[in-house]
Specification:
Layout: E1 7-11, H1 16-26, E2 30-35, E3 50-54, H2 60-71, E4 75-78, H3 84-87, H4 92-98, E5 103-108, H5 123-130, H6 149-174, E6 179-183, H7 184-191, H8 193-197, E7 220-224, E8 230-234, H9 238-248, H10 250-260, H11 275-278
Parallel strand pairs: 1-2, 1-4, 2-3, 4-5, 5-6
Antiparallel strand pairs: 7-8
Length: about 290
Amino acid sequence: MALQGISVVELSGLAPGPFCAMVLADFGARVVRVDRPGSRYDVSRLGRGKRSLVLDLKQPRGAAVLRRLCKRSDVLLEPFRRGVMEKLQLGPEILQRENPRLIYARLSGFGQSGSFSWLAGHDINYLALSGVLSKIGRSGENPYAPLNLLADFAGGGVMCALGIIMALFDRTRTGKGQVIDANMVEGTAYLSSFLWKTQKSSLWEAPRGQNMLDGGAPFYMTYRTADGEFMAVGAIEPQFYELLIKGLGELILLKIQQEAESCQARQTPVSVKQWPSLQPKSWGFVWQ
């Protein structure tokens, strides 16, 4: 296992922090989760491969135990807002003075600087501030969050795990730890680099829900089936689009052929203006 021999102290939290620590544990790290007094079970359900203990960090004895743990650990992962750890006398200045090799990973919603760093939030708030939420949803409807996967787990947990791995690698050259400031707003914005880099291309030139990859194209969307379930269609390339049309049967084939005959030298299987009329739901077809 790639992280065998690496010891991690995780201060318990919700979603992104536990997921980040679970990723490290899955690849061999020895993870100890520090729970708060009164915790009856692992609320996150992401405790795979971890050990746990209860400490009251607001009490001198509890804080002293954590400091001893961090003296012999490689990574500390904390999920709190700006200033919380410093108030407990457990900030990076203190812990890294006692263990210069310690990687101090801070995973928060808004980061450790700026006016928002003092505020609480949830996945949908971080997603909105990153700009990504404005791009997700059907045409003419409100934007909606894709569960809490994008900001919490991808922009938060995964990006923080990546930062920890890079810091561990850098330590092999420098011998020193570092502070990682991972936050879900910037992490989600970074994940969406492709979206912003291609914003002025044909991929996203139409309003939300009317582009090729966001539900506007009939060959890249979901459809309800006759048994009440759903199926996903992704036939972007012409050769796959042709197979899709052949498999749909004569009725829909005739309809699409009529609509597509006027399309000249296309970049996509059919012209963008024709997409709405080619969606089966718009003319009463139910996929069998």
